[in-house]
């Protein structure tokens, strides 16, 4: 790949704490505007209210997914995502894993790349197991294929058990945010 090439990336966004931008929903909207400064958002999902996974004693999350066009290589693009997180008050080095956060930006997929380095795993290792990612991803690109599992996002979502954190009643689409 050359640096002049453009790539399609899919980014998961999540927030369950106030940030300098406001409520979690306002934070997601502001983060999408920040993403527009470093590339082109080509599609965006609805906002979803979801129960926390792992550390359950924390507020519900607001989640969304965007598809994005970038000329950055995945490692460089990931660094830009982490810089946006920091600008919203999150530092992954000091925050509790799976804990409350002002903003979480996860690089889910880039083109059909499969990458496994100390700093980056593509596709995101938990992508196929999380309704809060698959529901918004299937909303904007239901036929997108997982490059390792060779299944569409719609099929991966349909295959999730409806229990625990993946229970459909624990994921709620919110009305559009002004």
From TrEMBL:
Annotated ranges, domain 7,8-dihydro-6-hydroxymethylpterin-pyrophosphokinase: 10-142
Pathway(s) annotated for this protein in UniProt: Cofactor biosynthesis; tetrahydrofolate biosynthesis; 2-amino-4-hydroxy-6-hydroxymethyl-7,8-dihydropteridine diphosphate from 7,8-dihydroneopterin triphosphate: step 4/4
Coiled coil (UniProt feature): none
Pfam families referenced in this protein's UniProt entry, alphabetically: HPPK (PF01288)
Keyword list, A-Z: ATP-binding, Folate biosynthesis, Kinase, Nucleotide-binding, Transferase
Keyword check for Transferase: yes
InterPro entries in the cross-refs: Hppk (IPR000550), Hppk_sf (IPR035907)
The family this protein is said to belong to: Belongs to the HPPK family.
Designated name of the protein: 2-amino-4-hydroxy-6-hydroxymethyldihydropteridine pyrophosphokinase
Gene: folK
């Amino acid at each position: 790949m050359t640096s002049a090439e453009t790539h399609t990336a899919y980014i998961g966004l999540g927030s369950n704490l106030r940030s300098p931008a406001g409520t979690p929903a306002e934070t997601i909207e502001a983060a999408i505007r920040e993403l527009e400064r470093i590339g082109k958002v080509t599609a965006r999902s609805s906002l979803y209210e979801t129960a926390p996974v792992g550390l359950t004693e924390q507020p519900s999350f607001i989640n969304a997914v965007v598809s994005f066009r970038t000329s950055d290589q995945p490692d460089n693009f990931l660094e830009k995502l982490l810089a946006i997180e920091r600008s919203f008050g999150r530092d992954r080095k000091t925050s509790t894993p799976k804990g409350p956060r002002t903003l979480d930006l996860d690089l889910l997929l880039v083109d059909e790349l499969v990458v496994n380095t100390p700093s980056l795993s593509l596709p995101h290792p938990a992508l196929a197991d999380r309704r809060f990612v698959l529901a918004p991803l299937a909303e904007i690109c239901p036929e997108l294929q997982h490059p390792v599992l060779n299944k569409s996002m719609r099929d991966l979502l349909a295959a999730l058990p409806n229990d625990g954190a993946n229970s459909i009643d624990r994921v709620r689409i919110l009305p559009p945010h002004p």
